[in-house]
Amino acid sequence: MDPVPALEESLKQPLKSVLGPATAKVMAEHLGLHTAGDLLHHYPRRYEERGQLTHLADLPMDEHVTVVAQVADARLHTFASAKAPRGKGQRLEVTITDGSGRLQLVFFGAGVHKPHKELLPGTRAMFAGKVSVFNRRLQLAHPAYELLRGDGEEAVETWAGVLIPIYPATAKLESWKIGKAVQTVLPSAQEALDPLPDSLREGRGLLPLPEALLKIHRPHTKADIADARARLKWDEAFVLQVALARRRHADTQLPAVPRVPVPDGILAAFDDRLPFTLTEGQRKVSKEIFDDLATDHPMHRLLQGEVGSGKTLVALRAMLAVVDAGGQAAMLAPTEVLAQQHHRSITEMMGELAEGGMLGGAEHATKVTLLTGSMGAAARRRALLDLATGEAGLVIGTHALIEDRIQFHDLGLVVVDEQHRFGVEQRDALRGKGKQPPHLLVMTATPIPRTVAMTVFGDLETSVLDQLPAGRSPIASHVVPAADKPHFLARAWERVREEVENGHQAYVVCPRIGDEEDDPKKAGKKKSPQDEAEKRPPLAVLDVAGRLAEGPLRGLRVETLHGRMHPDDKDAVMRRFAAGDTDVLVATTVIEVGVNVPNATAMVIMDADRFGVSQLHQLRGRVGRGSAPGLCLLVSEMPEASPARQRLNAVAATLDGFELSRIDLEQRREGDVLGQAQSGARSSLRVLAVIEDEEVIAEARQEAAALVAADPELERLPGLRTALDALLDEEREQYLEKG
Question: What is the rounded CA–CA span in Å between residue 249 and residue 242?
């Protein structure tokens, strides 16, 4: 048994034995921290200097913030309300300042007495709460606060460092309470096992791990923080890249059947039929894929391309090449609707080449089979038979393809569409379907910056399609500030009418549906003043559709579409819209994936600030698919200076998805790169910012590859093995292997 891990025992200590059950429970439930080691790795988000104040001017909306500021004035108001009809209601308004800006704090009811006594003008304190907008001004309702007194033993001890660490906090646990808990476990940092090989650490002049942990939590100078962060970034980047390098190494050990197309087979016949020539990018990417298919270990390639850049065509050519080489190819789509759509567009593109075994089929034809979960029994039996006999060269389906009962004759290539919905278990299940592991091509329309691809899809080689095919129209995008300039919104509806009068159609997208039942648990509770001060709920499809049909779009044919409708009703609505029988479709983001109506030229996105940057970009990709130019209007009530508005301005300013995914990342700053789709895993990136640390990631990738090539089992590095186990233990494994 390895004697070393005994060192780590104190880091494995559960927090409830160190901190007391109540605090430990909140840390586990709200921050996902369970052991002393977890808490040591919960790093401060930033640091406040005792003599310096946060920029109140830059506070983010709707986030939990901690600010250090000085009370400018405090006023107690009385007012009449339902609960206190005789003018006995009390509201305390405190204005705090930091020289750059002012912020209003409000306390209500019985909650006013303590702050009224303590928050006297001139007092300095830390305040924590959620920023909201009230009467168009930023405010914190009922913030928690901790006075900064410069006297008394306790205060001197706690605030000894000039730099006050501000931790990522939650409503249930303020930053300063987390700070006190960290002080309690800090001594055990001495026992942290160092995952970096000594040669690498010394060669790059990085701090030892125990020292880095000490300095990140109790820095005395800004240099301490910089050194600690540089070291901890390396840890993260390196451990992650070693995990990926080991996976790549394992993949190269697997055998695969090389698939080389015959020169005059179905691929050649298909290319002859194409009514256009391939773009330069499509040719380059196809060559990369064909080179991989010809090798004797499995291809693992990520194909990125904007909506409409012709990814499906590139994937289809690879599938046909495999059919030429005597194998079968399968394409997996995330939903039935998309599977059906791929099946339709592929059979259309192939024409008589898709009629294998039928009269009138071309001589090189094959059969294209669709397999989804909701097929009838007879159709399903036929499809399964086609797969098992090899009659079907191409099969398109949903995850139903992965089930145990399904046998392929000779599966040579798997194409996965929108990969981040496809975990490693499914990939392994599919691998087991071939006599040897099939080649794998993953397609995504979410543009992913290079470093993210290296981190999230580090076990895949990447190909990028970045030119749009000729004939696509540009999309003009504008922000409509509905609160500042209501007449802009009126003009937006006029623009929609104009598009319809010119024979086109429009989408109106809303963040929610609108028939959500009020949660009985929530309804029973009294609303706190904080909730009252919160913003209105996001606009809903059903309300907006009603208002438009009676108001600005009266006389147009308006229909609604959302995820809770019966699938048949959804199809019917989409069919009417595609056929041009509906003028305006008011929908939720269900239209984000795969809806193709070339005649739709305008899109109005309501409450656009409630959507992420890449989501807005994907939605916008639904218009301008035909020859007429597209128009996208982003409606928002957010104030001019808010970060939400800056985000929308960025989307309006560029059509380049890669540029936007960069902005998106800089704003989110997390490992949460592909948004909701894989947020099951808590981001495993803590100090590593995927964009800024491009060099660290690239260097760590090289070091990791060299190390794994020399010592695949990491026998000489027990510290690195322990760190890897910790990384892969948690739900992180699925995060890493979302390939």
Answer: 10
Amino acid 265 reads G
| pLDDT at residue 203 is higher than 60 | yes
What's the helix, strand, coil split of the chain in %, to 5? Answer: 45, 20, 35
Which tokens is 413 given? 């290539």
How far, in Å, CA of 57 to CA of 413, rounded? Answer: 54
Whether the CB-CB separation of 482 and 488 falls below 8 Å is answered with yes
Residue 522 φ then ψ, to 5°: -80, -35
For the chain, the C-alpha Rg in angstroms (whole number) is: 29
- Residue whose token pair is 């019917």: 572
The 8-class DSSP code of residue 279 comes to P
Q: Give me 109's structure tokens.
A: 């009811």
The confidence score (pLDDT) of residue 315 equals 93
Q: Where are the beta strands (DSSP E) in 135-237?
A: 137-141, 144-147, 163-166
Task: Return the structure tokens found at 477.
Answer: 């995008």
**pLDDT over 90 percentage in the chain:** 11
Specify the pLDDT at position 521: 44
In the prediction, which pLDDT does 501 show? 93
Mean pLDDT of the chain: 78
Tokens matching residue 462: 């990447």
Q: How far apart are CA 142 and CA 146, in angstroms?
A: 13
201/184 Cα distance (integer angstroms): 28
Regarding pTM above 0.70, the answer is: no
> Coil, strand, or helix at residue 391?
coil
End-to-end Cα, the chain, rounded Å: 34
In the numeric block, which tokens belong to residue 276? Answer: 């256009």
| DSSP tag of 609 | G
- Whose structure tokens read 């981001």? 683
Burial class (CB in 10 A: 0-12, 13-18, 19+), 396: buried
pLDDT in tens, 474-531: 788 899 988 888 888 899 999 999 999 999 999 999 887 766 544 444 444 444 443 4
* Structure-model confidence comparison of residues 407 and 471, the more confident one: 407
* Contact predicate 658/447, CB 8 Å: yes
